[in-house]
Amino acid sequence: xxYFPLLWAALWRKKARTIFTLLSILVAFLLFxxxxxxxxxxxxxxxKANVNRMITTSSIALTENLPYADMAQIEALPGVANVAHAxxxxxxxxxxxxxxxTFPVEPDRYFLVYPELILPKDQLEAFEHTRTGAVIGADxxxxxxxxxxxxxxxxxxxxxxxxxxxxxxxxxxxxxxxxSDRAQESAFxxxxxxxxxGRSFGKGTVGWYIIQVKDPTQSAQVAATVDKLFAxxxxxxxxxxxxxxxxxxxxxxxxxxxxxxxxxxxVFFALLFATGSTMMQxxxxxxxxxAVLKTLGFxxxxxxxxxxxxxxxxxxxxxxxxxxxxxxLFPGLKDVxxxxxxxxxxxxxxxxxxxxxAFVTGIVPAWRAKRLDIVEALRG
Amino acid sequence: xSAIVSLHNVVKxxxxxxxxxxxxxxxxxxxxxxxxxxxxxxxxSGKTTLLNLIGGLDRxxxxxxxxxxxxxxxLSSGQLAKWRARHVGFVFQFYNLMPMLSAERNVELPLLLxxxxxxxxxxxxxxxxxxxxLADRAKHKPAELSGGQAxxxxxARALVADPTLLVCDEPTGDLDRTTADEILHLLQMLNKDHxxxxxxxxHDPKAAExxxxxxxxxxGQLVEGSAHA
Lengths: 380, 229
Prior knowledge:
The structure holds 2 protein chains of 2 kinds.
Chain A (H helix, E strand, L loop, with lengths): L3 H8 L3 H33 L5 E6 L7 E2 L2 H6 L4 E7 L4 E2 L8 E5 L1 H7 L7 H9 L3 E5 H7 L6 E6 L10 E10 L10 E5 H7 L6 E2 L1 E6 L5 H11 L7 E5 H12 L2 H30 L1 H10 L3 H30 L4 H4 L6 H28 L2 H6 L1
Parallel strand pairs in A: 5-9, 6-8
Antiparallel strand pairs in A: 1-11, 1-12, 2-10, 3-11, 4-7, 6-9, 7-8
Helix pairs in contact in A: 1-12, 2-9, 2-10, 2-12, 2-14, 10-14, 12-14
Chain B lengths: L2 E14 L2 E14 L3 E5 L6 H8 L7 E6 L2 E2 L5 H11 E4 L11 H6 L9 H14 L15 H13 L5 E5 L7 H18 L2 E5 L3 H4 L4 E6 L2 E4 L5
Parallel strand pairs in B: 3-8, 3-9, 6-7, 7-8
Antiparallel strand pairs in B: 1-2, 1-4, 4-5, 9-10
């Protein structure tokens, strides 16, 4: 700590340069926080996938529907405990930017295979018995101020009615919670019957099946049995674990991990040169001052450490500010990724990256300071 | 009095490209403890080279350098750094203060290498600034001080760790006559009242008159014996 005033003063020797360098590192770490945060949020969602559940989709594409009649055959297979289904409704509320994750489901089946969705019994019953009934996540209800009894109109971007309109009206009959993962409280479920009767095409089909297996260790066997059952039919299936399904679903958006890695690699590669040259220049300008420190008795190692500490201070300060800004802005992405907080591992990862950056950009000037010849340096 | 600085048959050569230049030729001198010595001579005579050897900033190519009871020509770079911190205070022509640090922070620098507490360091810094008459300028940065005041801060920095020896390289070279005299009086006071051994390089015969002995160098050799001021 006693060296801190010396380090701090050295850092601010050229204020404008330090501010611009700080800003460039800050922006890089802001980007790092946001991108890695999104990536981490998606990965966390995949990691939280239930091992008891498997998803059966069309082997052609996720967007191809499967016959509703397949459900009974799947249900009859050994190893299968329960089966539910869901479909992609793709609607928005009032404005296209108010996109809502909405799925037509059969209430009793769906809430059976997703026990983590907590819905009061009376609300589940109301859901089953109300044709236009909908159950919404607590977070979604908070966001739009919806409550039980409200009538909510949604505009589907896929499903039209026989009259050519795409506007569907729902009555909110229940609000579910997911205490173990609040990010899941933003979905909108409604009755499959209302959906199937009301749509103008695709009747008698579902988007995918959710299979709850009796024994997770038998998942591969069950998957093979399901796919074998529909092999060589017009609707061949692809059954995979919930985790694999979620990964495949995310890959439809793109390989987020790879995109994030490429962007960050390029940002930090550019930053290496910017920060590295700043540190080099800073040390070059201070050669006589560093020589004086050595004259006073600072050893070669002390000089190396001082310059490395200086670059660490610069990088850590800027990274902390960048990550703090990302942390403050992150809740703004809640609607997109459903996560309200910047995940802690991203902050830890950011600090590690900042330390690495500090070392890589500081080591050459630090080595130069270590090797400084006092007599030559004082001679100027 | 016993010799605090003792050089025997010291040779110092520098290599410039393919050329080797011998700056000091078999130089032998002794400086007694508590002495105030002015090293004089024309440019290129080897004064600063000799000062650098005495201060442990450089090593001889041949010969022995004993300062404060230690063969410093045999010390490693790390040992030499520790030795300098313990035994030598440096004063430069252009003060060489850290521009971004206040006077007190500049003076504190040598104490960072000691085990003194923050409070002890502060106390010693104040004492050193008081000795040079600048206690009231402790918070000022070098740019806010006159040349004479900056040099006083540099002297306080050289003194603060209570070194055995003060090594001054043209300490008045950048100052006007009046300010130079004030600085030289200060050095003289440190020598007489505080018993500091001082070795000072100067071109200025008037500055040399403040020393108790003068050593003249020419072409790397001592050309004259000591002369009492």
